[in-house]
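pinned: reference chain
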Amino acid sequence: MFYFACKERKLLLSIEKEINMSKNHQSPNPVPAATILLLRPSDTQLEVFMVVRHHQIDFASGALVFPGGKADDQDFDDDLLPLIQSPNPDSNMRGAEVSAIREAFEECGILLAYDQETDQIIDGTRLESIQHYREPLNSGEVLLKDFLVKEKLKLACDQLTRFAHWITPEMMPKRFDTHFYLALAPEDHVAVHDGYESVDSVWISPDQAVQEAKAGKRTIIFPTRLNLEKLSEWNTPYDAIEATKTSDIVSVLPWTEKREDGNYLCIPPEAGYNISEEKMPERGVP
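pinned: its structure tokens
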């Protein structure tokens, strides 16, 4: 049986509890969301930027996650079209890409955007000069469109590579429809957690993150762990991005199955992960 860290056991037991509590309730519609796996090369294995969720956040509190979050209505606004490099013709997918870039800027300070005058990705100096927009954007005090127009920027959606698509199971009381993207972090961009939604951050190899979760040093939820394990197949960010460009993205809507030896959390085998089912811990198991 696949090894579970103690913290992940507790998370899965929490999932089971929520499933049982929500059986008599109507399933909510999943909320659109997006996240970026920001990558950089290292001497051994590629590294990915991750943040630690604040313990008071209502989803994945205290867990090590990729920066991202819920989409805003403004992310789908057609008025943004002139402010997006290579806009996706699918309005829903375009909105997800915008969400991913906006959330990454708000949460960790990296902004994938082109300077409209130079058509180049903004450098670290320019990035530092616009850091003060992060909180106003997050609070809604400043709209994304107004920020981009004032600073003469275009969102670099063409730098994103769609990596995965996960939908929270129907029996859960809180549901998200989340698109995962790969992107190479600009070399001189400094990633810093916001101190509100996230309280810590780290550049870490996928293997190290998984091993630290197994050792009980980190809390990593099921989708994050499987995406880390998938990412660990490549040693460089360039290999990961190129391989992903030609891969089919299979939507993952997990479900549970009750069997003679217990309950199992299952996902489609064709999604391309190293497992397609995992036994959920029994109550009382430490």
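why pinned: Confidence is low (pLDDT under 50) at residues 1-7, 13-23, 54-61. The chain is about 30% helix and 20% strand.
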